[in-house]
Amino acid sequence: MIFVAALAPLGAQPGETSATPSGSGLPVPRFVSLKSDRVNLRNGPGTDYPTGWVYRRAGLPLEIVKEYESWRQVRDSEGATGWVLQSFLSGRRTALVLPWERKASATPPLVPIHANDSERSNVVVNVEAGVIADLHTCDGRWCRVTVDAYSGYIEQKKLWGVYEGETIK
After folding, report:
1. Predicted TM-score of the model (pTM)
2. Fewest 10 Å CB contacts: which of 1, 85, 88, 108?
3. What value does the CA radius of gyration of the chain take, rounded to a whole number of Å?
4. How many angstroms separate the CA atoms of 20 and 154, rounded?
5. Is the Cβ–Cβ distance between 127 and 110 less than 8 Å?
6. 66, 65, 71, 69: which is closest to 22 by C-alpha?
């Protein structure tokens, strides 16, 4: 048997680009979602690093900002960063509705989901800020979403989990 060891250049940090591929090869940054209701956010890319936080919300969107082997450095809607094992992440696209409008001591505002991609169209349902929506399509201005049994359109700028101007087909 022949074993080949691939070493990162001296001084390389986890997730840095080197001559040896170390990650998925997919674009970074990008959005993903959690597969499970219990996912550890670690302080570094490995199980030897302490857990800094535990996410308890399957479908929660996260932004991958760096990759190192099978670990992904992620950022959540509040700006917290840490490392998650890739197998706990899904390519399924979800978004949080106006998470920046949730305040601890106040009732979350309601956000309309419209029947069509127009503010003048009928409102299908009003959802609370902070709810998770499944993304189906986005045209850079409006996204077609599903929340529970309700489907419709919401302005893209009201979502965290999709980039400004990003299109999803």
Report:
1. 0.85
2. 1
3. 18
4. 42
5. yes
6. 69
Q: pLDDT tens digits for 138-151?
A: 999 999 999 999 99
In angstroms, the CA 29 to CA 8 distance is 21
Confirm if 29 and 13 have CB atoms less than 8 A apart. no
Predicted confidence band of residue 114 (pLDDT cuts 50, 70, 90):
very high
- Report the alpha-carbon distance of residue 84 to residue 141 in Å, rounded: 31
Residue 15 and residue 67 in contact, taking contact as beta carbons nearer than 8 Å: yes
In one-letter notation, the amino acid at residue 100 is W
Question: Collapsing DSSP states into helix, strand and coil, what is residue 65?
Answer: strand
pLDDT, tens only, 3-20: 333 333 333 444 444 333
State the maximum Cα–Cα separation within the chain, in Å, rounded to a whole number: 68
Tokens representing 24 are 């998925």
**Short-list 72, 80, 63, CA closest to 163:** 63
What is the C-alpha to C-alpha distance for residues 93 and 159, in angstroms, rounded to an integer?
12
